Amino acid sequence: MSTISAKRISQWFVFIGFLLLILAGGAVLSLDLTHKTPVSFIDALFTSTSAVCVTGLLTVPTSSYSIFGHVTLLILIQLGGLGIMSFTSGVVLLLRGELNLKERMITAGATDTLSLRDLEGLLVLIVKYTLVVEAIGAILLFPGFLSTGKPVGLSAYLAVFHAVSAFCNAGFSPFDSSLIGLPAYIKIVIAFLVMLGGIGFYVVYNLNEVRRGVKRISLHSRLVLYFTVALVLGGAALIFLFEKGSVSPVDAFFQAVTCRSAGFVTTDIMKLHNSTLLLMILLMLVGAAPGSTGGGIKTNVVMVIILSVKSFLTGHRDCVAFGRRISAESIRQCYAFMTIYLAAFVCIALCLMVLNPLTLQQALFESASGLGTTGISLKVTPNLTMASKFLMMAVMFIGRLGPAFCVLMFVMKEKQSKVSYVDEKVILG
């Protein structure tokens, strides 16, 4: 099996796997035992799509669902957050100890940065890292919910639910008001769970190899970590500044984190200034790191574009970061991915305005939230028309896989031209 065919098979495996999981989740969530109040199949399907695509947008509140419905949501969030292929392959590895060559080729098709030898270690680490972080998160959250006066059993349930939802960057909460009014301790723990899920498994794997002394820290890991810190701290400072102290430093920090792809809120979004809402849209568009549980354009794509612009403005021919030159092919792909993503973002907003009586701000916010799998809304999702609900389901699905991923599924292998063309400059300005 060639590498190209293996990659194409892996892409279709992920695409069909996510689609089947969404349909199965919608069927289960439409059952009477999964909800307390009547929920239509379309709303159940929308909730399933939001859970599998770890988004958090809802047309009906989570309080509409029963305990069985919440457990179903957690399963969908867990499978969607890790990715069906990574989760199932990781379980096979843990149970059997290895993948055969065909399974390695198919699974490796979606990861250009890792060799087949490294892949097994990554998949095992994904499952172990996820279970350990979620378990620690639940343990840390338990006393926080207990301190709010809730019973032991309910506190344990809330701790587990929020730990899984936060790590997978899903943004689901049993509370209809999300995290508004909860203690700062709970918000901080959830914020760090979101960041641990959003840095990406490639970074975790690389840092683990560095710890073992096997490898050096990669350029990918450096870009992700530096840009993540810059976005979180810079975003928190700007939110606090824009709101002129009307939100606490903890809430400003939390919103800077959750806008990256998580979807939890700790303050009433409707009361925020327009400058803050614009910043939130930009953060949602950037999203999380490659190979993470979050969506968005991805941090490294934006970082590479920023570095390439810097090299152009400073007159340098090469785009360099941390003593390493970024290849021209990588830069070309980043600009292509950025263009595809922004074009999709604008088109979705335009469609939402045509189908619904939304303002430009509401349409752009909803589009960024769905495409970036963030899940924050200006309270327009429950009032969307039927056509808009189907549109947003498709948007969340595309956002989870990535617009570039969906386009490349149907793109044939790169063709080498047999003709050598003459270069000619184009007037650019």
Please give a handful of descriptors for the protein shown.
two-stranded antiparallel sheet, 429 residues, 17 helices, globular, mainly alpha
Characterise the protein shown here.
With 429 residues, the protein is an all-alpha fold. 64% of the residues lie in helices and 1% in strands. A two-stranded antiparallel ribbon has the order 1-2. The longest helix is centred in the N-terminal third of the chain and has 31 residues. The chain is globular. It starts with a helix and ends in a 20-residue tail after the last helix. About 1% of the residues have low confidence.
SSE diagram, text form:
Elements: H1 3-29, H2 41-52, H3 67-82, H4 84-96, H5 101-108, H6 116-146, H7 152-167, H8 184-198, H9 201-211, H10 219-242, H11 249-258, H12 274-286, H13 299-313, E1 320-321, E2 324-325, H14 328-355, H15 360-371, H16 386-401, H17 403-409
Write a compact overview of the structure shown.
The protein has 429 residues and is mostly helical. It has helices at 3-29, 41-52, 67-82, 84-96, 101-108, 116-146, 152-167, 184-198, 201-211, 219-242, 249-258, 274-286, 299-313, 328-355, 360-371, 386-401, 403-409, and strands spanning 320-321, 324-325. The chain contains 17 helices and 2 strands.
